[in-house]
# Entry
Amino acid sequence: MQILGTKQLRDRKVSEKIVRIIIKLLSDINRKIKIMHVCGTHEHTISKYGIRSILPKELEIISGPGCPVCVCPAADIDKAIEIGKRENTIITTFGDMLRVPATNLSLAELRAQGADVRIVYGPNDAVKIAKENPDKEVIFFAIGFETTVPLIGYEIKINPPLNFSVICAHKLIPAALELLIGIDQLNIDGFISPGHVASIIGTTPFQLFSDAYHVPNVVAGFEPNDVLMALAMLLKQIKNKEHKTENEYTRVVKSEGNKIAQKIIADVFDSVSSPWRGIGRILDGGLAIKDSYSKYDADKKFDIKIEKSIDIQPGCSCHLVMTGKIYPYECKLFKKICTPVNPVGPCMVSAEGTCAIYYKYG
Amino acid sequence: MESDVKGSKIIRLAHGAGGILQSELIEFIVKGIAQKNVNDGIGVEELDDGATIPLKNYDKEIVITADGHTVFPLFFPGGDIGKLSICGTVNDILMMGAEPLALSSIYIIEEGFSFDILGKIVKSFNQTAKEVGIAIIAGDTKIMPKTTLNEIIIATSGIGIKDKDIKICDNNLKAGDKIIVTGSIGDHGAALMAKREGLNLSTNLESDLAHLKEIYLAIKEDIKQNHIHAMKDPTRGGIASALNEWSSKSNLSIWLEEDNIPIKDEVNSICDILGLDPFNIACEGRALIAVAHNYTDKVLQKIKATKLGKEARIIGEVKSEEPKKVFLKTIIGGTRFVDMPLGESIPRIC
# Structure
């Protein structure tokens, strides 16, 4: 299949052409197909452009645990809240972390109670705030997958001021894919893998995965026709009974990834077993700051103990939504009790959360 | 609990962002008002751009609007808080189909604010009022101790006058109406946000801040003849908020064509970078106009002949099926809902 030029990424004629290919492939395959993506930004693209509405019903796209905000455990947020309650602290984080309900509060509620909580676009902004406020402790609440990790690693490496520290809640994607494959009755025919993660780690980790589990995988970009193209590529593999990792996002992703970014990650972080909200502890599922940089590790600096945290409130089905077992509208709380204004679970909070996206785009 | 608004015990920033939370806040404030309208005119409960007082024994009615203005930064590409205060008030009067007459102004100022900056704001305020031809006839000032207010707030109340039989309001859409937007959307919000975030994108994107009197005058005859059913300036919450209000108050659906909605490339880029939706961010000099379908072309031509309305376009139509919803046919041919924004525009992570 041809590579899309940048002008074709949102071109309706190109979309229609790919959809025709998809319909043909589906009729050749002649059964229901279930594709999972594991990225909030892919869900955003699918919903924003109404992609499901132009695809045949036999092709089902479900979303896996791809929202970094959603899989961040309540205990980590509770930790940020406890630190933020102290005098002379400034908590900084990405915007959609603000409203995620933790055990008792969200960071937005903490801010409304008078704590200094600020939205930043990246850790460099947090370091800048630390330099401007030498008499305050500035904590960056770091979430995200491999895409955001190098940014934080870089800031830690270049000697930020000592009043800057990081709550490290980073997660890693390949381990999560492995876990999903092991879930009973999931029956996934193929994966769309996140292009931005692959731009850092390359396609090899995904290749190992499709080799080991015989599942087709396509690394895709985030424009509507990227996603449609990835679906067509997956269907072609399914039709031909292949199980490769292919790269649809060649304009950004190289098979070896970004070596400089990989080195920064390896220099600053260790991979550790890590709790994912709604999913449980995943082996090598997260990162921790290496001992050599412990002076920037808020965990060590502030010595906060969270006695008991609640990840999933009673009645909430976020864990089932995140593992692709049910659709948001199959949850009893969806749109009735749980809304983006008053989210019960994390999937309703983040703009990337599956429930929030289903709520918004229907 | 009396002070508890659907689970919120305190006011959050999101309560002021033009979405569902803001509606809950307003309901909280308004529900205890004993008398909510005068002479059966439009009152506080309708939550329209303004209210009306029909004058007994005359064929006219008075239109009243109220507005509080805060903006950061006070001076932004394409305008400042002074101009914003006049335009916001005047546009609300115009969007009711009324002729602006006069307004009052209240300046609430933080201790320590400089006369130099105040002078610039006042000059811009007065100059814009002169351009519109609206009188400033009453006012007040208050000074707040340092740090109890951030710089300055300007509050205005506007008065206009219109014929009683002109009916232009949010619940007045009719199936078959076409919806016109008078120019590109989201310029104001995007320009401000780019400036706030220090995004140096080497663009000349400016706020669309303007008063809409020129457009009002161009279509005044159609307003009188009731060819126009609703008008709204999509400020906070953007066109998503404005169109959802129309569809839900009118009990009809609105169907938009994404291809036809004018959005500047810079606005799309800024929104992509900051993780925002152009449909949800504010315009300050645009109007959405719902026109009876047989008059659409005529009205569109009149708007396009104005300086401000050159880029005006038909972006959608009103239907009776699936009431209270706004649909969008996307650029790749898919269909989705356009929902009421919820609150504070929060950027997405990656």
